[in-house]
Amino acid sequence: MNTKKVFLSTLLLMLFAISSYGSVNTQIIAHRGFWDKLGSAQNSVSSLRNAIDFGAYGSELDVHLTRDGYVVLNHDDKYQGVNIQEATYAELSALRLANGEPLPTLQQYIEVAKTQNRTKLIVEIKSHHSPEADVRVANAVVNVINDSGIADLVDYISFSADICKELIKLNPQHRVGYLNGDKSPQELKAEGYWGLDYNKGTLHDDHPTWIKEAKELGLTTNVWTVNSLEEMQYFLQQGVDYITTDHPELLKGLLN
Ligand code: MG
To answer: What is the whole-number distance in angstroms between the Cα of residue 116 and the centre of ligand 1?
Structure first.
């Protein structure tokens, strides 16, 4: 190799190192939407609108499949005593969120997301208690998203390895992040994942080398739910790609 080539390859390696670790280009994901505002509620359409107005990279949401095949938003398995996965959409549509909205359907969320092309939907598909049900919900969600033409605006996440496996099988290009914290970056890479999306304790206490290892493997790194300044600073120093937080404004202040 001549001197010029050596110089160029060294320069490229340096640029790669800077882009991988040197700069803080961390993006903000609003956890369950940007709900911490007057008149909003977690997993509400209003929280998605707030996240879009704020300019978040993503607005995270939790989805379940109803007994009659609707994909609806809610964090817990039950809402006001009604088991979402055992209910019909008609039964759920009578219930109201804290801000008076009905529980949104994924379709209603998509209609709002479609009005722009910046803020992504970070769709968390909840576990459905059997591998068969997990496969069913993964397919239902992907169908709704593909039919709506906004696949480019969606990243998928789940605690369920069965759901993630199905999402990757349906389309290896799906951006799938695993939440459960029990797979190493090497395992995730081998299984076709886009990235890891782990609890702050997993990445800070249990496996402090995993962010670096994931980056070296070309996986994306996301951490939840990071709400204090000290935690935000730690993960920014680690060069994590995404921070999922209940306090997007606090994080934005720190980034600026
Ligand atoms: Mg969630």
So the answer is: 22
